[in-house]
Amino acid sequence: MSGAPALLQARRSAGVDPDALGGLLRDLVHEFRPARVQGSVPGHIPHLAAADFRHFGIAVAMVSGEVRTAGDAGEPFLIQSISKVFSLALALGHEDGPALWSRVLREPSGTAFNSLVQLEAERGIPRNPFINAGALVVTDHLLDTFPDASDQVLGLLSGPAGGGAVNTEAFESELARSERNFALAHFLADLGNLRNRPSEVVRHYVRQCSIEMSCADVARAGLFLANDGVGPSGRVVSASAAKRIGAVMLTCGMYDAAGEFAYRVGLPSKSGVGGGILTVVPGVCSICVWSPRLDAHGNSLAGTAALAELADRTGWSIF
Ligand code: GLN
Prior knowledge:
Layout lengths: L3 H10 L4 H15 L24 E6 L4 E5 L5 E2 L4 H10 L24 H5 L10 H14 L3 H10 L6 E2 L1 H9 L2 H12 L7 H12 L1 E3 L1 H7 L1 H4 L3 E2 L2 E2 L3 H14 L5 H7 L4 E3 L4 E6 L3 E6 L10 H14 L5
Antiparallel strand pairs: 1-2, 1-10, 3-5, 4-5, 6-7, 8-9, 9-10
Helix pairs in contact: 2-14, 3-5, 3-6, 3-12, 5-8, 5-9, 6-9, 7-9, 8-9
């Protein structure tokens, strides 16, 4: 029995040779770049309506500092709900962070990311910070400390290299169609779980969702989650917080498909309806894959399939 941890170590670090990994990523582009229109794009985000179904990019940022990319990994896309990982990290990195957990739970929701029903039934305490209701509470929490909350999230994502920017046109058009997020914010206010004005909270939330970045930038930005809280430009959160954000990603990051995704891929991940997925291999690397067409849960179809293959071929599943 005493040999098991060493064996596991050997299995998980297998395939980390950067050149072999580069070849594997190119294989994935070849295999998973969609050849025909499948799945859907979100109806409430006008900017995403015309997304080209053929896009497919993947990037891996390793804790060693090496980055390998393939396909459209340099194309900017809307990160949407991937931003929720970074707003949570920003909140938990602050001294008021632990107080957040009295306002939002850490349980999978089993419902759609923008569901209203559960929020009312559960008296305004969202199931987790990665569904929209929970992210609105995180944004509200941030606004108590940072009046420029969405700029702070952008700063955390971009780092000193400045790899991201808010797409203003996407932001304005989504804000104009955000009835559901406004409804969630008003419910939260009515049930006593919002301190700032609903309009202000929704504005910052939609703005952080409208950040555009490439797969390579997102993978680099997420590296701290694989590296005990330390990213390319220094410590982002404590090692303990990084571990716990990973746990919430594993159980809640793919909405009501979290169980199925854990079964197929076995890695903490967070998706966005822009078609991106950020995935963490603890101690090894962070991965970002992007392809715009979505499954019924709002997760990238080709991205999920490619991650399942990558996890199989590298042995990177945490299980
Ligand atoms: N901005 C999107 C929304 O609020 C984010 C949802 C997502 O990426 N799952 O609906």
